[in-house]
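During the reporting period the student researcher (J.K.) took over the structure-prediction task from the postdoctoral fellow and processed the backlog of single-chain submissions. One of the processed entries is reproduced below for the supervisory committee.
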Amino acid sequence: MTVLLPALAFGEGVSKTGGVAFRFDDNPPTAEKYREIDAVFARHKANYCLAPNLAAIADKPEFGEFFRKSIRAGNELMDHTVSHSCYQIRNTPETLSRLKNDPGVDHVNPGFICLKYEAVPGCQETNFKGSVRNGNQLELPPHIETMLLKFAVAWHALWIVPRGECYRIMRSPDAKSLYLQSLWGENITLPELENVDLRLVPKNDGVRPADNAMRLAMRENALCLKRLGLPPETLRVFVQPGGFEPFLRMDELKRIYVKEFGYRAADRYTSKKHTFCDPAGADKAFELSPDFDCLETVAPEALKTRIADSFARHEVKLYISHMKTAQFPDGLKEFLRRHDELLAWLNAAGIPVRTYSEWAELLTSPTRRAENIMPSFGTDLDGNGRPDGFEPLPAGVSVRDGILSAENAGTAFRLQDLGGIEKGRNILAGGLSGPAGGKVIFLLQKKVFKGRTDRETIEFTLTGNKVEKFEREFNVAPDVLLLDLEATVPAGTKIHSLTLCGK
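J.K. obtained the following C-alpha cells:
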C-alpha cells in the first residue's frame, strides 16, 4: 500500500504540523470490540492502527472480514509478530510439523518454537569471571552483582563464553540473589561452571535474532495473512513486542525488514520525542515509539492538555492502547465514550489524526524552512487558561489578545522541547515594548538527544517606543533535536509578537 498525503504538496516541503496516532495492540477476545472501536473513529472520520498477534486469530474468518473492511477505509494493520515475540512462535501440531527443521529454529519446547539468536559484533560489553551453581544460580564479582540487583537486571543479558550461549538475568523474589533463565524465558539446569568467562551486554544491543529466524517470522506473517484473506504486503510497519526479550535494533530492521520485505516504519522503543527536522533523517521512520499515557489510564481532559501542548511544539504523539476496560465501571462503554470525546475535540481543534505510515512519511520529508514554529501566546486549545506549549506563566505575567504582558522584572515565559527546529541559520524576530534602556534577554538551549546542550543568549535593548521590531540570527548544529527558549524582561514589558524560523 502506497501512502499519498495531500500535506506533501506544500511547495518547499511539508508543514511542521504535529498531531496524534492511535494504536490498539494485541488481540481482543472477539472481532466485535474492534468493530465498536472502528465505529467511533468512523463517526469522526479518523483513522487508527491495529497491531494484533496474528497466529491466534488467523483461522477466525470474522477477523479477516473486519481487517479487510478496516484497511479499505484507510486504517493500518501492523506487524506485532504472530506470537508477541521476535524469538518464539507458539507451538501447535501444525506449526511444529512445518517448522521443526527450519534453519531459523533453535529448539522446541511444549509451549513454543524457539528461534535462533546471535551476538551483535562490537557492542558495549563488560567481561569478567563468575560461576554458576546449582543449575542456574549466579555468583558474580560483588560490584557487578550489586549493580544488577539494584536496577539493571531488565536491561542486560549474560553470555557464558565457553558455552556460546546468552541468558536472561533474573532477580530472586527477595531481591538478594541472581539466577539465570534461557533467553526464551525457560527454566534451566546447567552443569556446575566454576570461574568461567562471562560477558555482560546491554540486552537490546548485544543480542539479535538470527537472519533466518527473522525470515521465518516473515513467512509466518504471510501465512497468517493468507488465511485471513489479506496479501503479504499488508504488513509494512513493525511494532516491537514488549517484555524481557531483546528488542530489534535499527540494523536488523533496515537489513532484513526494509531491504528484503519493504517495511517503511517501525516502533522501536526510544524516549525520543517525535518531531520534524529530526537529525536521524530517514531513520526517524523506525523510531516511532508510543506514548503509554492513553485513555485507559488518563482522563480525556488531562490528555487534551498534553496533546495541546505537544501540538503547539510541533510534536507527534503516538498513543498505544491494549483495549483494557475492566478498570471502568461501565467497561467498554466508558472506553468508547472517552475516545468519542477526545476525537470530537481533536476535530474541533484541527489536530490531525493519522496512521503510523502517514506520520513516518511526513516526519522524514523535507520541511518548509521559513515556517514559523513559535507557539502563539493567544492559543489555548484545551481551555486551561495557559498558552499551549508554554510552562505555567510566572506571577504577574498575563496574556490578552495574543500579547504577553509582564508586570514584574524577571522571567516572562519558558518554552521547553520545541520541535521542528531547522539546522543551520535561524531567525528569532518579534515586536516588543517597555521601559527605555531595559534589556530583553532570550536564552536559547539547543538540545541534542541524550547529548549536550548548546546555550546562546540574544539581547535587545528597549528604547521606550510604542512597539519596537527586532530580528536576530542564530545557528543550530546538525545534531540538535529540540530547543528550549526563555525570556527575561524588565518590569512593564510587552511581547506583542514572536516568530522563529529557518533562514
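The committee noted the following: The CA atoms of residues 267 and 288 lie 4 Å apart.
J.K. will present the remaining backlog at the next meeting.
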